[in-house]
């Protein structure tokens, strides 16, 4: 127990602060970052350290002093005065875009048009109109097309891929996803609460819920219903959802519920007194999948049914911690007694996967790799035209993702996030 805790802490420390630094190869891809964004170190700069084919070469920020300070802190050799200057830099191969959602479209188009590969933060853009325009750009169908990826990092981690091997999407009956963040984590002037910048909880933490549900059913919903939301407090953008709840119907008859709260409060004893206390409950993004009950065996006088429930704890950041709990419930019914239940037995398994199983071709990784590091591996593999792990987020998938977000906002009675002026 003690050994395993020390091992976990060591893995975590290596992941976050101290990955081994790789010697860069002469053909390493040179990345430039648009904006000194908070997420850039975690999502790209730290993961790049251990990748011998990735070099973080340049940064641009709206304020040159901020860019210089960021460059100094993260040892980035080149600072550009503007985002446009960075994109025009012939020394840069790839652009990472961690800008507010509402600016993703404009800058992704500019970067791709300059022939750069683009790693684009999630959600890819503001709405499905932008997504169709971006991901169906004719330049992306050319033989020498640049790579464009919506950075749904969690899908690249072995834990998510292991989870997906545990069931057939056709058998999924219900999915419940909770993405909740304690109130106060993001200040009220954060980009997440700015409608013009395409904010809202569904666009933020909620985009994972939508992505996860689509991935679990391997299908698009036939409808969305029962959408409720909590707007921002008075004085803030009322078009921005602070929390949102929705139910989706899927073609196999299954349903999914998402529950997203970016300012979670309450849930304590004496609710009247504590309802405004920040809530740490559900702080680990969690999802529960229930599969349809299936007849597994039939003997003289008895039928046995199996029913599986799978819970994934911390599905968004499995590198910090995760656990996949699989409960298989066996129910034995007496067919001579009108199917009376005579026995119910639960079998529980707890699974985890920080690395790919040994010996699988193209699948590289280390226990301490974060979701972002696994994602970077595949991004580079695509650029270098190698097969890699086979995990990817296709452009058409990113379009469907935005269609589901749009449909949810429509059902909520909220406006779609605004389309960029740069989309003619
Ligand atoms: N993959 C993940 O785990 C995560 C992804 N994200 C995504 O990354 C993106 C950025 O999020 P985050 O890093 O938290 O955001 P920040 O606010 O920290 O960074 C956004 C950057 O955008 C730039 N910017 C340009 N124009 C504006 C503007 N008008 N207003 C505000 N900022 C502007 C700023 O750059 P400058 O330095 O030039 O001023 C700023 O540094 C979002 O799309 C978000 O959804 C966020 C967190 C986690
Ligand atoms: O991973 C994440 O966690 C917190 C969110 O607000 C953020 O945007 C998201 O990507």
UniProtKB/TrEMBL annotation:
Q: Does the keyword DNA-binding apply?
A: no
Q: Keywords of this protein's UniProt record, alphabetized?
A: Oxidoreductase
**The Gfo/Idh/MocA-like oxidoreductase N-terminal domain, residue ranges:** 29-135
EC class of this enzyme? oxidoreductase
Keyword Oxidoreductase in annotation: yes
Phylogenetic lineage: Eukaryota, Fungi, Dikarya, Ascomycota, Pezizomycotina
**Entry's EC annotation:** 1.1.1.179
**Domain of life from the UniProt record:** Eukaryota
Domain GFO/IDH/MocA-like oxidoreductase stretches = 177-268
Question: Organism, per UniProt?
Answer: Melanomma pulvis-pyrius CBS 109.77
Q: What is this protein called?
A: D-xylose 1-dehydrogenase (NADP(+), D-xylono-1,5-lactone-forming)
Reaction catalysed?
D-xylose + NADP(+) = D-xylono-1,5-lactone + NADPH + H(+)
The record, for InterPro entries, names: Gfo/Idh/MocA-like_OxRdtase_N, Gfo/Idh/MocA_domain, GFO_IDH_MocA-like_dom, NAD(P)-bd_dom_sf
Q: Which GO terms describe its molecular function?
A: D-xylose 1-dehydrogenase (NADP+) activity; nucleotide binding
What PANTHER family does the annotation carry? OXIDOREDUCTASES, TRANS-1,2-DIHYDROBENZENE-1,2-DIOL DEHYDROGENASE
Task: State the family it belongs to.
Answer: Belongs to the Gfo/Idh/MocA family.
């Amino acid at each position: 127990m003690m050994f395993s805790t020390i091992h976990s802490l060591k893995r975590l420390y290596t992941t976050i602060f101290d990955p081994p630094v790789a010697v860069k190869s002469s053909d390493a891809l040179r990345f430039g970052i648009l904006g000194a964004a908070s997420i850039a170190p975690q999502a790209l700069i730290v993961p790049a350290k251990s990748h011998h084919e990735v070099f973080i070469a340049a940064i641009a920020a709206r304020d040159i002093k901020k860019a210089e300070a960021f460059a100094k802190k993260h040892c980035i050799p080149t600072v550009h005065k503007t985002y446009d200057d960075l994109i025009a830099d012939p020394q840069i191969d790839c652009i990472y875009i961690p800008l507010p959602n509402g600016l993703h479209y404009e800058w992704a188009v500019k970067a791709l048009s300059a022939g750069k590969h683009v790693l684009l933060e999630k959600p890819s853009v503001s709405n499905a109109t932008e997504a169709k325009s971006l991901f169906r750009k004719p330049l992306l169908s050319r033989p020498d097309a640049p790579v464009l990826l919506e950075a749904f990092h969690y899908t690249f981690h072995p834990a998510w891929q292991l989870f997906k091997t545990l069931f057939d999407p056709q058998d999924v009956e219900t999915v419940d996803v909770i993405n909740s963040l304690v109130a106060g984590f993001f200040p009220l002037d954060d980009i997440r609460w700015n409608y013009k910048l395409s904010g809202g909880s569904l666009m933020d933490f909620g985009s994972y819920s939508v992505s996860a549900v689509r991935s679990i059913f391997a299908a698009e919903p036939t409808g969305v219903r029962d959408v409720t939301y909590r707007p921002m407090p008075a004085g803030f953008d009322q078009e921005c959802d602070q929390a949102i709840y929705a139910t989706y119907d899927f073609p196999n008859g299954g349903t999914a519920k998402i529950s997203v709260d970016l300012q979670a409060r309450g849930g304590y004893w004496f609710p009247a007194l504590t309802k405004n206390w920040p809530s740490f409950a559900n702080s680990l993004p969690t999802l529960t999948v229930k599969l349809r009950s299936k007849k597994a065996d039939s003997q003289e006088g008895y039928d046995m049914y199996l029913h599986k429930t799978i819970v994934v704890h911390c599905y968004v950041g499995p590198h910090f911690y995760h656990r996949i709990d699989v409960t298989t419930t066996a129910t034995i019914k007496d067919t001579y007694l009108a199917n009376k239940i005579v026995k119910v037995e639960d079998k529980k398994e707890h699974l985890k996967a920080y690395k790919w199983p040994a010996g699988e071709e193209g699948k590289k990784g280390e226990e301490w790799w974060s979701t972002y590091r696994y994602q970077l591996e595949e991004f580079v593999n695509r650029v270098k035209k190698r097969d890699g792990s086979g995990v990817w987020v296709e452009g058409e998938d990113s379009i469907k993702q935005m269609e589901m977000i749009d449909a949810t906002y429509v059902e909520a009675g909220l406006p779609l996030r605004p389309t960029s002026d740069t989309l003619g």
